[in-house]
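For the sake of transparency, this paper describes our internal protein records without simplification. An entry from our holdings is shown next, in its original layout:
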Amino acid sequence: MLRNPEEGGPKKKVLVIDSHEDLRQLLALRLEVLGLEVLETGRAEEISDLLLGHSPDLVISEWSVPGLQGMEMLEALGPRERNVLFYTEESLEPFQDLLNRSNVQGWVPKKNRSDLIEKVKALMVSKKMVSQRLKPESERHILVIEDSATVRGFVRLALVRSIPGCVIREAEDGRAALSEMAQKKVDLIITDLEMPGMDGRTFLRAIRANALLKKKPVMVLSGSITPDLLSEFKDDSYMWFLEKPSTTQEIVEIARRLLGDGRA
């Protein structure tokens, strides 16, 4: 929830992303009149540092900038972790269902700047929207399911170094993972697909058939992600897919987004 600075406390931060400098500056002036602190960039390589270093309460972004196009931009902004509005010259109607599932707050054509300002004002006073930043909990329990001890160690090290208070547990296949989840708390599941015993796909179906686990955040980290698997879980907004090999930054960023979402 964005709150007007008149209610007390520090100014809320808004990050404006657009490759057109004149448009960014004009929009920044309008937002500053609302009492908001405005950051801006038009460079893809600066976005991650601004998000992590300044933790903006709202991001207003073009759908694409040089080096970051469309779906890549959506993933980079992490709308499960923060409020995101797209302000674009492109029509996003074909992506509306995806935007809704991704928790994007909406999109506005650039010709309708007054509509954008009204949406920002609505976010400032909304009582329905809760903060989507990572919850400051003392422990975050993450279960890594992977038959390779080397890969488990790689994922464990990446998470422990980057996410304060995380508790990592491990399982070699889906059956062992279900046993682990029956005994201990789990906030996030990271699973491979190709494993002996109960494979990843069978495991995903099993937890989504369970009323207590059907909204448990899951990161599928695998080199065997297929179009039919994506289609099977396309309506599951609590599941993200990441291809192997992936960087530690990619793994950590998606883990943070999923941990910042509601717990099942």
Residues 3-8, 127-137 have pLDDT under 50 and may be disordered. The two ends are 21 Å apart (CA to CA).
